[in-house]
Amino acid sequence: ELQHSSLCLIFSRSFKAKSTSAFGSFPPSPINVSFSSVNLRNVLHWLPGQDTPNDTHFTVQYAIYGESVDGGNQLKWMAVRQCTAIVRTWCDLSAQTSDLDDGYYARVRSVVRKKSSKWTGLQRRFDPKEETRLGPPLITVEVHNNTATITLKGPMRYQLNNQTTAISMAEIYTHMTYNLSVHNTHLEQMVRTDSERVFLQHHYVLQKGFFKYRLLSYNTKYCFSAQSRLLFMPIECQRSAWYCITTAQGIIDLKLKPTSFPVIPLFTPSPASLQPLTPPTKHYRCKKK
């Protein structure tokens, strides 16, 4: 009986060692942990490790750069209540990372049937103000007589809740300006060839989000698109969709109710006088090469 017990113990240890070496630790740790950020909505993403069971849950913690345990070198990790034992593979940490003067760390682990994996963290510190992307600005177009008045607003910082005051990213990046592009079919016809359609654009740099554009041609489609512009920071700025108006056949006297075209969230109004235009193949972005 003693010999039988010893054999069972040896077999058990051998099987456990073989399982660990063949399949790695259980449960598998998450992989590819990283932040994505648009207008300072900071979302942590990750992927399940290889052979992760379907009933796996995930738990997230974060730490603030410079805050340690008892003044030592160990980071002070804090739990995220809404991202504890979740099944999804992302966690919105906008509230936890809202102070733009701080840098942040985050980590994730898998939990399966009360067993936890090792933590998987970011490869480097996350600095929201330097790493976020700017979404497209909101555009308002009003046409009267032969002038189109274009007003640009935002983009707006992501609001944590309905009680949070809406803040333009221009208040955070005080040196932000706008690039406004204008395309019209009259210019296109001047350079059209039999083999291809050529897009020509006028470009304007706006210190403020207000611009008046003269509509000089009858029966012409004028299209407007804009993006934020940052000269001193390598931040990607997204361009808005193209929106178009068509001038009258004779005397230009369009009186349109001011119309706002919000792009974030994804919502595209469709008044009869406004039609989306396929953007040119050349894009202008403010990210440094």
Automatic annotation (TrEMBL):
<dbReference type="InterPro" id="IPR003961">
    <property type="entry name" value="FN3_dom"/>
</dbReference>
<protein>
    <recommendedName>
        <fullName>Fibronectin type-III domain-containing protein</fullName>
    </recommendedName>
</protein>
<dbReference type="InterPro" id="IPR015373">
    <property type="entry name" value="Interferon/interleukin_rcp_dom"/>
</dbReference>
<comment type="similarity">
    <text>Belongs to the type II cytokine receptor family.</text>
</comment>
<dbReference type="InterPro" id="IPR013783">
    <property type="entry name" value="Ig-like_fold"/>
</dbReference>
<dbReference type="InterPro" id="IPR050650">
    <property type="entry name" value="Type-II_Cytokine-TF_Rcpt"/>
</dbReference>
<dbReference type="Pfam" id="PF01108">
    <property type="entry name" value="Tissue_fac"/>
</dbReference>
<keyword id="KW-0675">Receptor</keyword>
<dbReference type="Pfam" id="PF09294">
    <property type="entry name" value="Interfer-bind"/>
</dbReference>
<feature type="domain" description="Fibronectin type-III">
    <location>
        <begin position="9"/>
        <end position="119"/>
    </location>
</feature>
<dbReference type="InterPro" id="IPR036116">
    <property type="entry name" value="FN3_sf"/>
</dbReference>
<feature type="domain" description="Interferon/interleukin receptor">
    <location>
        <begin position="132"/>
        <end position="247"/>
    </location>
</feature>
<keyword id="KW-1015">Disulfide bond</keyword>
<keyword id="KW-0732">Signal</keyword>
